[in-house]
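Section 5.1 Outputs to date
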Amino acid sequence: MNQENKAKATYLPREEKVISFPIDKTALLVIDPVNDFLSEGGAAYELTKNTLKMHDMIEHLKKTIDGARAKGIPVLFGPMAYTEDDYADEKLQKKSGINRMMFETKMFLAGSWGADFHPDLQPQPEDIVLLPHKSCDVFRSDLPEQLQQLGITHLVIAGMAANLCCESTARHAMEDGYDVTMIKDAMGAASIPEYEAAVHLNLPLVSNAVITTEEFLNALEVSAPNHMVDVREGDTVKGSDNGEIGTIEKVVVAANESESYILVPQGLIFKTDIYIPLDAVTKRSGNEVFINIPKLVVGEMPWKEAPTQQERTSKQGPPAQDVDNLYRSRTATVLSDRL
């Protein structure tokens, strides 16, 4: 290979053995919990109100925040705020459809009631309030620096809106190596179809789990720094989309040529036994464990037989030093080659 990646792809908690939320390395990010989204009279409330009521979103968000605080997990608030500079000078209203909508409806104007936090979701002195993000990605604020300073590897995301800021931020967090979890009943959107598409289709693929407030709080009860929580026979297995897959019949630890896996026997949904690699399990909540594959696509995985070490090696691909051309007949174009 004749070119190194500009930024090394990684998974930050790759050396950790926990399958829950290590208290000292987990943070809760609450995105845009403000009046324009959440309060009657807010600029976007007529759009968002149906999804807010559908899951009692504000109450669940409050419970999520209170539960994180009670465990000593840092809570970061990621709001938006726009000034004349953003529109008159930077022309952000021309940037995208959502930027145009925010401009035309006077959403999140700096210093306004609409940009203020919902009365039930006020930051406390120990919380962190980030600099404003100006579109959908909260990583385009001081969030990266705050997470690095706190030593965070696991990021839990809730707030508004599921298909925009929550999804964009989840994608960026995942790409930067964080273990990402979404709280499905503590998020809303501008419409039910937008919410459903995000929660059931998109977020399960760009995070490790989409769970409920109750599941998050239950998971915190068994969490501790570097505390290993075992996967057990009888546990219920759920996909990253929160869909139930089945019950664990057997947990097998790697030995000789075999890999570690959990066995979920055939049932009403899956017509064959499913051998799920043990390292696909990323979260535990009560007697439930979550794998980082949506239930919708579990049947498409090559999990019809017990996994072997040989199969795992083949899935890993060749060593980097043995690859001359990344794309067989071509490799990546180096910028200096074009100058």
